[in-house]
Design goal:
About 0% of the residues lie in helices and about 55% in strands. By secondary structure, it is mainly beta. The strands form two sheets. Strands 1, 2, 4, 7 and 9 form a five-stranded antiparallel beta sheet that branches. Strands 3-8-5-6 form a four-stranded antiparallel beta sheet, with no helix packed on it. It starts with a strand and ends with a strand.
Length: about 130
């Protein structure tokens, strides 16, 4: 039935320079879903060196190419915490096979060059849409 459905997927954490791949069906999304909603969060804390920008990049590759969504963060040298979060929607190809097939695997990469005590990103599947 068409509509938006909630999901309470596993929380996956990434550190700077790490990337991961998530098969949406392994996260509880049914094969007939057309879109997934991913809750993305970046936490930045104290780092050494200069201030710098970074991004959490979520992408999916389908029959028409790669689609990326980016969540911005700023890392700064001081004793404080900053959070940035967003619900990000990405299309998935209904009916595609599971693991490794185009359109059903989301890649997440945390692109931050700074190193320090508290840079971490998390992603979690929180819903899906059926058209």
């Amino acid at each position: 039935m068409p509509g938006l459905y909630p999901l309470n997927g596993k929380v996956h954490n990434l550190k700077p320079g790490e990337d991961m791949k998530m098969d949406v069906e392994n996260e509880g999304v049914p094969s007939h879903a057309s879109e997934v909603i991913v809750y993305a969060k970046i936490r930045t804390g104290w780092v050494q060196g200069k201030d710098e920008d970074g991004e959490l990049v979520l992408s999916v590759t389908g029959p028409n190419g790669k689609i990326e969504r980016r969540l911005f963060c700023h890392v700064y040298e001081q004793s404080a915490w900053a959070y940035n979060s967003e619900n990000i929607s990405l299309p998935v190809e209904p009916g595609a096979c599971a693991t490794g097939s185009k359109g059903k695997e989301i890649t997440a990469t945390l692109e931050v060059g700074a190193q320090g005590g508290g840079i971490i990103a998390s992603i979690q599947m929180v819903g899906y849409r059926v058209y």
